[in-house]
Specification:
By secondary structure, this protein is of the alpha/beta class. Helices cover 36% and strands 15% of the residues. It has a 7-stranded mixed sheet with strand order 2-8-7-6-5-3-4, sandwiched between helices.
């Protein structure tokens, strides 16, 4: 007769309750002040008007969506010159990260990602029972040599956010290719290119070329950032046929809803809106970086639509103090404690009004006058 004690209620399997749940950035400041949400890297221009129109037109609520997201996959394939059969759409790239981990890792396996990589990599890894292997970064940037040195016979997946969130740094394509070439062929390299559209560097490539020529590379993209559709949760994966097949076998049958499919399909066709969002970011990313630097803050060079600002370790001027001061005035930023960067705040590039107010309030917080550089 078994002597194993029987619980008096359902109990999650070992390890689940040890996972720290993902906590999104704050959305409200509280009080009566106008709120400027700069905590979630959302597009300050909002979505394409064509996407809004398509969303409102998708009113056949009694019907299940197309389980294969066919129109959306075809639209993505047309926009990027891809094979629609090698695409999978998901409820945000978060779902696709979770599905990849579930398909390729489990107890006894290891999943590698860099020190300041997206928190969902850890959550997805632990949820499968696999072991996360966190690799130190160099100058807040992923280190290819260190990533390769961490590979063992247990390694199944390497997640690389490029550009990375929350640092805004990136690896040039030659370095990404070097990473892929150094991996054993059975290890899947997942390139998370959520912010790819914002990058304006000649040595950057999102991963499309590498996926097209390698059997162990997949790329993730999202409609939450440049396309301004964060509320609808739409992401996509481009990968080898075998990876696509594995993910399709375990994803939800109707994982992307009809309104999201319609809006995302319209959004990817509105290149003018994307170009406007990129142009806005080009101007204000540089302006915010310069202004914060002029205030005496250290700003990690970013190629995304956000900056990581580092505050002095001085009583009353620390990141947590700045966060409280800004929040009281309606400016909602992202604390970085969960990423192991308690001395920094991540700041989304917002509207002109939000950006100028941010600098003015930070100048007040730091006891300095606003630099006043024009934009």
């Amino acid at each position: 007769m078994s002597t194993t004690p029987v619980a008096d209620r359902p109990v999650p399997r070992p390890g689940v309750l040890a996972i720290e749940a993902y906590v999104p950035g704050k959305a409200q400041a509280g009080g009566a002040v106008k709120t400027y949400k700069l905590s979630a890297n959302e597009n300050p221009l909002g979505p394409s008007p064509k996407a809004r129109e398509a969303f409102h037109a998708a009113d056949a609520l009694e019907f299940y969506p197309d389980g294969s997201s066919t129109k959306l996959r075809e639209a993505i394939a047309g926009a990027y010159g891809l094979d629609a059969g090698r695409l999978v759409c998901g409820t945000g790239s978060d779902e696709l990260i979770t599905l990849i981990a579930a398909a390729y890792a489990g107890p006894g396996d290891e999943v590698i990602y860099s020190q300041y990589g997206f928190l969902v990599y850890r959550i997805a890894t632990l949820a499968t029972g696999a072991t996360p292997v966190v690799v130190p970064e160099k100058n807040l940037t992923a280190d290819v040599d260190a990533l390769l040195a961490a590979v063992t016979e247990k390694t199944r997946i390497v997640f690389l956010a490029n550009p990375n969130n929350p640092t805004g740094t990136y690896l040039p394509f030659d370095e990404v290719r070097r990473l892929q070439r150094g991996l054993p062929p059975h290890v899947l390299l997942v390139l998370d290119a959520a912010y790819a559209e914002y990058v304006r560097r000649n040595d950057y490539e999102s991963g499309i070329e590498l996926v097209a020529t390698a059997r162990n590379v997949a790329m993730l993209r999202t409609f939450s950032k440049i396309h301004g559709l964060a509320a609808l949760r739409v992401g996509w994966l481009y990968g080898p046929a075998e990876v696509v097949d594995a993910v399709n076998r375990i994803r939800g049958a109707f994982n992307v809803n009809s309104a999201a499919i319609a809006a995302a399909t319209a959004a990817i066709g509105d290149t003018a809106h994307v170009e406007a969002a990129v142009a806005h970011n080009d101007v204000w990313l540089a302006w915010v970086t310069d202004e914060l630097t002029a205030l005496g803050l250290t700003v990690t060079p970013s190629v995304g639509n956000f900056v990581l600002a580092h505050f002095p370790d001085v009583e009353g001027q620390r990141a947590r103090d700045a966060d409280a001061f800004l929040s009281a005035r309606g400016l909602i930023l992202r604390r970085m404690d969960a990423y192991g960067l308690p001395g920094a705040l991540r700041i989304t590039i917002g509207t002109e009004e939000a950006n100028r107010l941010l600098v003015a309030v930070l100048a007040e917080f730091l006891g300095k006058r606003e630099p006043g550089h024009g934009a």
